[in-house]
Amino acid sequence: MGINTQALMAQLLVGLINGSFYALLSLGLAVIFGMLNIINFAHGALYMMGAFVAYFLLSIFGLNYWFALVLAPIIVGAFGMILERTMLQRLAGLDHLYGLLLTFGLALIIQGVFQNFFGSSGLPYAIPTALQGGTNLGFMFLPTYRAWVVVFSLTVCLLTWFLIEKTRLGAYLRAATENPTLVRAFGVNVPRMITLTYGLGVGLAALAGVLSAPINQVRPLMGADLIIVVFAVVVIGGMGSIMGSIVTGFMLGVLEGLTKYFYPEASNTVVFVFMVLVLLLKPSGLTGRAA
C-alpha cells in the first residue's frame, strides 16, 4: 500500500496540535513540580477551567477570543494562587503523596461542579475571524487557526523556558527551592514567590484550554481526557525538566500522529509504551537528572 501524502500530513498536523497542548500542560506541571515539588493532579481540571472562562467571557461579557487569551490565564492563575495559599501551602515539607491526593480530590470536585451545571456535551466556541480559513500548500490544506496554535504554543513554551533558566527571577525561583533560608536572607519573600510560581503553572494550563476551545469544544471532562497522557509526557521528559517537557510534548504528539496513520490501533497506547521503555532504560527521564 502506497503512502497517502495528504492523509499523512493531516495526521502529522493533528499530532502537532496535540503536541502543542501536551507541551503547554506538561510545561506547567514541570514548573510546579520543579519549583515547588507538588505533583499537581488538578492540572487537567484547571485546563478545562481556562476553556470555560473563555466561554463565559464571550457568552456573558461579550469579550472576544483575544481578550480571553489574556484574561483567562490570569483569572485561572489567580484561582490557582488561592488554592496554593489556602490548601497546598499547608502540605509544605510533607511527602509528595499528600499533594497528589489533595490535587486529585480538587480535580474531581472542580470537574463534578462543571459537569453538574453543564452536562457532558461540548459547548461550541467559534474560531476568531482573523484566524479563519486556511492555506492550500499543494500537498495539504493548512487551517490558519491550527497553524497559529502550534506557533503560539511553541513561542510561549520557549519564553517560559527563557524566564526560568536565563533570567535573575528564574535564578531566584530555583534558589528558593534549593535553599529557601538563604534566599530569605536576601530579602526575597519566598512564600509569595512560591504562590506566584504555582499561579504561572496554572496559567499555562488555562492558556492551553483557551487555545483548545475552538478545536475541541468546551467540555467539563476535556482535562480528564488529557491529564494521564500529560503526566506520561512529564515522566518521559524528566520530572521538573522545563526543556524536557517542551521537546517531549511536541515529539510525542508527532509520534501519536504517525501511529494513527501507520497503525491506528496502537495510537492510544504508544505514549505509554514509550514511557515504559524510557523508565526501563533511563528512569530519570530523557533530560532529567538522577536523584
Short synopsis of the structure:
The protein has helices at 5-36, 43-59, 65-86, 96-118, 144-166, 168-178, 180-185, 190-216, 222-237, 242-262, 270-281, and strands at residues 134-136, 141-143.
Quick tags:
mainly alpha; two-stranded antiparallel sheet; 11 helices
Description:
Helix content is 72%, strand content 2%. It is mainly alpha-helical. Among the domains are: 41-92 and 143-219, no CATH class; 221-291, no CATH class. Helix 5 crosses helix 6 (168-178) and helix 9 crosses helix 10 (242-262). The radius of gyration is 19 Å and the shape is globular.
Give the secondary structure arrangement, pairings included.
Blueprint: H1 5-36, H2 43-59, H3 65-86, H4 96-118, E1 134-136, E2 141-143, H5 144-166, H6 168-178, H7 180-185, H8 190-216, H9 222-237, H10 242-262, H11 270-281
Antiparallel strand pairs: 1-2
Helix pairs in contact: 1-5, 1-8, 1-9, 1-10, 2-3, 2-4, 2-8, 2-9, 3-8, 5-6, 9-10, 9-11
Helix content: over 70%
Largest sheet: 2 strands, antiparallel
Alpha-beta classification: mainly alpha
Question: What's the total number of strands?
Answer: 2
Order of helices and strands: HHHHEEHHHHHHH
* Alpha-carbon distance between the two ends: 47 Å
Shape: globular
The helix tally amounts to 11
Rounded to the nearest angstrom, the radius of gyration is 19 Å
Strand content: under 5%
